[in-house]
Specification:
- The complex is a heterotrimer of chains A (362), B (313) and C (279).
- Chain A has helices at 58-66, 108-118, 123-136, 152-164, 182-199, 210-216, 234-239, 244-249, and strands spanning 20-29, 32-42, 47-51, 73-78, 81-82, 93-96, 170-174, 202-207, 219-224, 227-232, 254-261, 264-267, 270-273, 282-288, 293-296, 304-313, 318-323, 329-334, 345-350, 356-359.
- Chain A has 362 residues and is an alpha+beta fold.
- Chain A has 2 domains: 20-239, Rossmann fold (3-Layer(aba) Sandwich), CATH 3.40.50.300; 252-359, OB fold (Dihydrolipoamide Acetyltransferase, E2P) (Beta Barrel).
- In chain A, the strands form 4 sheets. Chain A has a 6-stranded mixed sheet, sandwiched between helices. Chain A has a 5-stranded antiparallel sheet with strand order 13-12-11-14-20. A 5-stranded antiparallel sheet of chain A has the order 15-19-16-17-18, with no helix packed on it.
- Chain A is elongated.
- By secondary structure, chain B is mainly alpha-helical.
- Chain B has a single domain, classed as MetI-like fold (Orthogonal Bundle), CATH 1.10.3720.10.
- Chain B is built from 13 helices and no strands.
- Chain C has 279 residues and is mostly helical.
- Chain C has 2 domains: 3-46, no CATH class; 68-278, MetI-like (MetI-like fold, Orthogonal Bundle).
- Chain C has 15 helices and no strands.
- In chain C, helix 5 (73-107) packs antiparallel against helix 14.
- The chains are: A alpha+beta (362), B mainly alpha (313), C mainly alpha (279).
- Chains B and C meet through helix 1, helix 2, helix 4, helix 5 and helix 6 of B and helix 1, helix 2, helix 5, helix 6 and helix 7 of C.
Chain lengths: 362, 313, 279
């Protein structure tokens, strides 16, 4: 995969992004609560990802920010002003949808100019600014084409240019990459990140793909059932998840039966520090990361016997699944030069990293 | 009335899901049957040749021959006689007026149906009712209108007795060419509903949302986005309605018992009497004229349908 | 309507993509009333008791009189003919069109466009034009097969081609016929069995829709029958209306009701299939 060199960027005005705040936002549909009190404060120019499984309310929150959904109570503040009663077309936001949002009867350049036209920008200015925006997303030569002549990735770039050309205060992205091929997805997310950073624009990015969220965002808000479970930097969420749901959702974990004993979790005789709130003694699942398990020799202290179930080559590393004596499966990330065969026996060693623990019925 | 349900055919053509191999397998060792494998298609081919191709050829070509079989251009030239031209003119006029009214009213009804559940009772009822009315045999339609606005019709009498308005003050126009207008509109509007609804329902919500986020209003949505996107489909449907009215015979035949005010009725005269205007195979010439018009109109329709299907993907 | 649906509707009205409830009902109300006038007028007409005013069921009752069959002989002949024609036309659709469509779909995919084009021609060449050329053809047909009315079905098969084609084709497209027949073949079924047990059961919907539409079209056909001097429902209705307009209107209403039921059923067929597959 080649890294795209940055094309000409629009001039950045540091700190031009707005502060965005959601305070106690509640939204219900009849008896179902889509948002149960969302609190979120964003700094100017920050890139926040809303991450969660389907139905968690992340898209509802984004649409509430845009004005396409109304809220029942709470406030939505952009630059300190409550916009909850302002209609969408007056909120000065930019939005990129998952798909199909380009106007089919207009050329690419006409699509990009649309927002400028709505703001009564003069024709000459419009053309220049739209061309500049297209250059920024690398499609300067495609101005005269139509949407159906472009690939999915190109269409989303045009949508991005269209949203940004008016220099909105906030940029909202509703799963913009979900409909694209894997490779295009990775490429495009880097570009989105670079562009928003160059422009200094406050950005909210909704996704269900945790790898995507962790890769691009300054901070990630993990949501479930209308609530924010945890907000933090990707590193914080990964290393110190606030609860088992976050630990499980962000990154890969293996659930290994163990016991809580005071402030440690005992797993196969190994005592690991417990992450998060203290829990009462008793049976739990320890949530162990693949990189916290290593291949070892039989005589290493605390070595656990295991047999290979499956092994996958992932390019720069290998991930192998082992079956432990008690039947549970554990994923181990290791060097590609170790190539376990299915059925082999091996020994594993747990690193002394803190682990989260979730409840277990005995 | 005979073109109901036709439209989708042309747009479907653009999206054929053909597979490159047949289910017999790409490398089957079947004896090369050559032309014999087309045997299965012969019944249909024969049928279409005898009852569609041959009659069509006869219809359009007969205008070029006299009864004795000599080639002649008399009949075709006869098409340009003033009264025949007037007939074509009337046909055009009626078709255009009813197509435009039908298209506008039909589009309004489609708009009113936006947002209703496609499976729900309202939509299914309107779908079925439209199918029926678009197919409503011309004779029965004529009865309905005679019963409604004939000389003793329900509405005629109501207006006369209750409001003192006599709609037939200047002659009973129902049995003349003008009378065809309300009657044709009665099947044009349902045809428009059937034809145009898919296009209107195909407007993507994201376009309206994008319009809003980019600062547009409801007005800009409709004028800058929705109308332009719908235009090919609207005008395509309009052409279909035109073709529909132009080729209609039964209604006119039922209401106008003699005379040749529009082209189909002129064909009737030509078939029923030996010669029309002193020419022998006038019916053939008229048929040719009609086919030329129909081909042009339907070609325009298919061009517009292709544009629509490209955008509605 | 669920709360989510309601909220979506409100959002759409705000965006301008859907009409508000009032606008919707004004448009549908006005158009609905205007369009029901002719139907209502027909119903009231059939109940009218002559110039004296007042209403009566006499006209409807007269259909069941003992000598009704004699008095309205032409009309009943027309009805019988039309029903016969409908049956034969459906027969042609099932025996000639359907197998050809399946064959083309499976074996001659490149001919699909050609077939589609052929089935659209009857729109560009309407009945009034076709009939000019049918007269000579039918003089030959009469010499071979006699002058009875059922031969008209050959011409009708052509006029219903566009509708029948579309109904069957949308079924063929929705059901992956190629894959199904491949599956059948790999399970050792010969082509006869594949057709009978695999394909036809899955084409029921399209076949029924094509049949119903064909019946509706045949019942309403006037042009060809009239200009080829045959008697069918519509020509008989026109003739009867000269002497007894009441009975003519009654039968027009009945035919309308029948067509409505047929076309409503087609809609139903489409719907039950969809809900069935979602469960």
């Amino acid at each position: 995969m080649t890294l795209t060199a940055p094309t000409r960027t629009m001039t950045a005005e540091p700190g031009s992004g707005a502060t965005v705040e959601l305070r106690g936002v509640v939204k219900s549909y009849g008896s179902m609560q889509a948002l149960s009190g969302i609190d979120l404060v964003m700094e100017p120019g920050e890139f926040i990802a809303l991450l969660g499984p389907s139905g968690c309310g992340k898209t509802t929150a984004l649409r509430a920010l845009s004005g396409l959904e109304t809220i029942d109570s709470g406030s939505i503040l952009i630059d300190g002003v409550d916009v909850a009663s302002t209609p969408t077309n007056k909120r000065d936001i930019g939005m990129v949808f998952q798909s199909y949002s380009l106007f089919p009867h207009m050329t690419v350049i006409e699509n990009v100019e649309f927002g400028l036209r709505m703001r009564k920008v003069a024709k000459a200015d419009r053309g220049a600014r739209a061309a500049e925006a297209l250059e920024m997303v690398g499609l300067g030569a495609h101005g005269a084409r139509f949407a159906h002549q472009l690939s999915g990735g190109q269409q989303q770039r045009v949508a991005l240019a269209r949203a940004l050309v008016t220099r909105p205060r906030v940029l909202l992205l509703d799963e913009p990459l979900s409909a694209l091929d894997a490779k295009v997805r990775v490429q495009l997310r880097e570009e989105i990140r670079r562009i928003t950073r160059d422009l200094g624009i406050t950005t909210v990015f909704v996704t269900h793909d945790q790898e995507e969220a962790l890769a691009v965002a300054d901070r990630v808000a993990v949501m479930r059932a209308g609530r924010i479970e945890q907000i933090g930097t990707p590193r914080e969420l990964y290393a110190t998840p606030a609860n088992p749901f976050v630990a499980d959702f962000v990154g890969l974990t293996s659930r290994i039966p163990g016991e809580i004993d005071g402030e440690v979790v005992v797993v196969h005789g190994i005592r690991l520090p417990l992450l998060g709130e203290p829990q009462p003694d008793g049976p739990v699942f320890a949530l162990i990361r693949p990189e916290d398990v290593a291949l070892a020799t039989a005589d290493a202290p605390g070595a656990i016997a295991a047999s290979v179930v499956s092994s996958s080559f992932l390019g720069s590393l290998r991930r192998t699944e082992f079956a432990l004596p008690d039947g549970s499966l554990i994923a181990v990330q290791h060097d590609v030069n170790d190539q376990p065969e299915v059925g082999d026996t091996a020994f594993l060693r747990l690193r002394m990293a803190p682990v989260a623990a979730s409840a277990r019925q005995q | 009335m005979t073109v109901a349900n036709a439209p989708v055919l042309v747009s479907d053509a653009a999206e054929s899901t053909t597979r490159r191999h047949s289910p017999w397998g790409p490398a089957t060792r079947r004896p090369d049957r050559g032309l014999a494998k087309y045997l299965g298609l012969t019944p249909f081919a024969l049928y279409v040749v005898v009852f569609l191709a041959i009659p069509t050829v006869i219809a359009v070509a007969s205008g070029f021959f006299t009864d004795e079989g000599d080639l002649t251009f008399d009949n075709v030239l006869g098409l340009f006689a003033p009264n025949v031209l007037a007939t074509f003119g009337s046909s055009f006029w009626i078709s255009a007026v009813t197509a435009v009214v039908g298209a506008v009213v039909g589009a309004l009804v489609c708009y009113a149906l936006l947002g209703t559940r496609p499976e729900g009772p309202l939509r299914s009822f309107i779908d079925s009712a439209s199918s029926v009315l678009a197919q409503f045999g011309g004779v029965m339609l004529a009865f309905a209108f005679i019963a409604a606005i004939g000389s003793q019709g329900l509405i005629t009498v109501l207006l006369k007795d209750q409001l003192g308005i006599d709609i037939f003050e200047n002659g009973v126009w129902l049995y003349q060419v003008q009378g065809l207008v309300p009657v044709y509109i009665y099947f044009q509007v349902p045809l428009m509903i059937i034809t145009f609804m898919p296009a209107l329902a195909g407007l993507k919500r994201q376009w309206a949302e994008a319009n809003a986020t980019l600062g547009g209003t409801r007005f800009t949505y409709w004028t800058q986005i929705a109308f332009p996107v719908l235009a090919p489909s609207f005008f395509g449907s309009l052409l279909l309605l035109f073709a529909n009215a132009f080729s209609s015979y039964a209604t006119a035949a039922a209401l106008i018992s003699q005379g040749a005010q529009i082209v189909p009725l002129q064909i009737r005269s030509a078939l029923v009497s030996e010669t029309v205007l002193g020419r022998e195979n006038m019916a053939g010439a008229l048929a040719l004229g009609m086919v030329v018009v129909m081909v042009v109109v339907m070609w325009g329709y298919s061009v517009l349908q292709n544009r629509t299907s490209r955008w509605q993907k | 309507m669920s709360a989510v649906d309601r909220a979506t509707r409100l959002g759409a009205v705000r965006l301008g993509t859907e009409p508000s409830g009032i606008v919707r009902w004004i448009i549908l109300g006005v158009v609905g009333v205007v369009f029901s006038i002719p139907i209502v007028a027909m119903i009231l007409f059939s109940l009218k008791a002559g110039l004296a005013g007042g209403y009566t069921l006499d006209h409807w009752a007269s259909l069941f009189d003992d000598d009704a069959a004699r008095v309205y002989r032409n009309l009943f002949t027309g009805i019988g003919n039309s029903l016969l024609l409908a049956v034969v036309t459906v027969g042609i659709v099932l025996v000639v069109l359907l197998p050809t469509m399946i064959l083309v779909h499976l074996q001659f995919p490149r001919l699909r466009r050609v077939l589609e084009f052929i089935c659209i021609i009857p729109i560009t060449v309407p009945a009034i034009v076709l009939v000019v050329g049918l007269a000579p053809v039918y003089s030959v047909v009469v010499r071979i097969a006699g002058g009875s009315v059922w031969t008209l079905a050959f011409a009708y098969g052509i006029t219903v081609l566009p509708y029948a084609y579309r109904a069957i084709q949308s079924n063929l497209d929705a059901v992956d016929v190629v894959t199904l027949s491949e599956a059948g073949r790999t399970l050792s079924a010969d082509w006869g069995r594949v057709l009978l047990f695999v394909l036809l059961p899955n084409l029921k919907r399209g076949v029924l829709a094509a049949s119903f539409i064909s019946v509706a079209v045949v019942l309403g056909e006037f042009t060809i029958a009239s200009l080829l001097n045959r008697v069918n429902l519509q020509t008989a209705l026109l003739q009867v209306s000269q002497s007894n307009p009441y009975v003519a209107v009654i039968f027009a209403l009945l035919a309308l009701a029948l067509a409505f039921v047929l076309l409503l059923s087609i809609g139903r067929l489409g719907r039950t299939r969809r809900t069935g597959s979602e469960s």
